[in-house]
Amino acid sequence: MLNTLDMIALITAGSAFIAAMFAPIRPGPPACACSICRVLQRAAWLAAFLGLLICGGTTLPGRAPSTVAGSSLVLHCLGGGVFAGGIAAVAVLCTRRYFASPLYWLMLLASLVVMLPATLSMTALFDTDQQVLLTQTHRSSALALVIISAAFLGRRLAKRQRSAIDQSETQPAAIQ
Amino acid sequence: MNILALIAAGPLLVSSSLSAAEPSEDLRSDSRAPYIHRINLYDADGVIIRPGDQRPYSPRATCGKCHDYSAISQGWHFSGQLSGASEPWIYTDPLTRTVSVNPSLTDEQFVASFARHHPGGGRLESSELPKTSGTLEIDCMICHAADAAYDPAERARQIELKNYRWAPTVAAGLAVVRGSAAQIKPADPLDELAEFDPAAEQTRAPALKMVYDKSRFDGDDRVLFNIGKKISADRCYFCHSAVPAVAVRPPNWQPDGDVHLRAGMTCTDCHRNRGQDALDHDMTIGRDSGARSDAFTCRGCHMGTADTKNATDALGGWLGAPHPTHNGIPAVHFEKLTCTACHSGPWPEKQLQRVQTSRAHALGLASRDRNARTLPILTEPIFMRDASNKIAPHRIVWPNYWADYDNFQIIPLPIDQVRDAAKGVLPPAAEAPEPLTQQQIIAMLHKLAPLAKGDPAYVSGSQTFAVSGNGTLASLGYSFDSPAAWPIAHDVRPARQSLGIRGCSDCHADDAPIDAALVPAPPPADARQSAAQRMIEFRGGDPLLAHTWALSFQVRWLLKLMAFASCGTLATIITAAGLRSLGRWLAGRQEGE
ipTM surpassing 0.90, yes or no? Predict the structure, then answer.
């Protein structure tokens, strides 16, 4: 069952998704060209998406906010750690490149809203009801994050494909 | 007697001959003050008892005049319909080392073994009981007596003497009985179930003499039953006590008792009648059942009942129960654990505790023989899954009995026949017998061979033994029987002594007793043969997962650090970018103007 938080997350993510599909592609500033930065950027993206994949995969068996338990929860925490490190590295290394992309900022914002409740719930500051609310917020924002991330990834792949086509169209002319 | 006296006594004579079967009048006082029960006593035939009479009073006829006895008798204290949720009846026989849980007994055997801690009714009113002894009707006063005049130990003594029908009268201190109904010869010696006629018996052979305490009767032959609305926990404790089975008892200041009782509550504050009708005696046992009575479970009182339209039930706080905050405990714990897992029973230690209970060890009855090793050996707290699949503290007892192993089935042999067979084969045993030697087991199995359809077998702890083809004792290789287990909920410890109060490592550690404590099969099972199991394996948990959790909590600080650092980084970058964009936007507006 979807609750209010889920609905808010879905509407936000859906709006972002639609906006991203119809928004014009604006080229960002060039990324740092050195090989170390490129490797680090790729590693950061890989960690973020791998973490997201693990966390998403481990929540599939259960639907209620706190049915992730046992070995799934261990993996979920592990995936969460990988994602946290990855997305923070992405934010540090890739912000310049994607500064003009609203989807990128939405993804970072959703990541923050996903991670913050999970982190806070590891402290002894919140009681049972607040813990449930934190878990629910974590779950709903994670739903939004998955959609936004899918939109962002799809958008990047589309852009890359278009660049490849453009490149293939221009290359024969250059030879001639 | 003159005519005026006869007229005056008329209504009394009519009322005194009311049948016990007459429907109750359902008298109610509807006051918060207890009703003063100054009432006449009635015998089983519904005839009023006078101080000089020899007939015992009948609770069915006396209490049943105003309260619906048949409705009350449906309560599980009497009908025994609560199997699996509460402590079972455990039959022990030191000679044969038998420890049998809820054994198959005749009604007479059941009464002889367990009626001492049974309030009456149900099987105790069986027609199979000897007519000379009568039956054990529901003895209302065993719970409802508000003072110390009622003596449940005396009731047990009368039951031992087979003075069943006299037991409620004597226990209430209304009369004394000399002799035993077991000595009474029935009118027809060939028919042991022949009806007993006290008057005839009195003139024939006074094997049993009853004398009422005349000071308990007033001028109208009425007796004051001191009945309170609030039943004292001491009444419940007679049948529901549990004490550590240790050679030297802990000093009196050490056991603190249940925190609820310390707060001034009593057992019936929570364990109320479930239905709307207060007479149903279908008492709540602290489990969520979907009924209104869920308001008086742990969750109902302390947190409120979520799925109810009743505002006060939804809010909880009954009896002044504080709302627990459970700060820092992830909600998944409440789905996996019962409240009692962290709050009830003894604080879990690596060495499990042996415990003795009223029902299993006849606590409450004076004995010089009872000691720390008296059978049965009950062990607690065992953290295993309950009927709702949540982990809860349990008390367990391993079975130990002689059986017929036939067609891959284990059928316990009749206890009487096993006892007869054991004479001369097994040494006379005290209260706490030593485990049998292999030679003794083999000899006993040979002796039992004629009684078994298949092969005689000895179920001992977690293993089953039989005599092999070469005459030696052999384990059948796998367990036929698991220990009997039932959840424990008391004593509830104070919040400051709840599990987890020192942090996650109270449970999430390799050496945490909740996982690492060893669950052995204690004597009289042969300890050398019965391998102990770690508690997590015993309850079917995953040791690797528990180990992983334990490890993860050693590096949890790193996860927290990384999560906080990542959140901080994201928040900083998002804020900085937002401010930068805002600055550009403002600058653009200024340029435009």
Answer: no
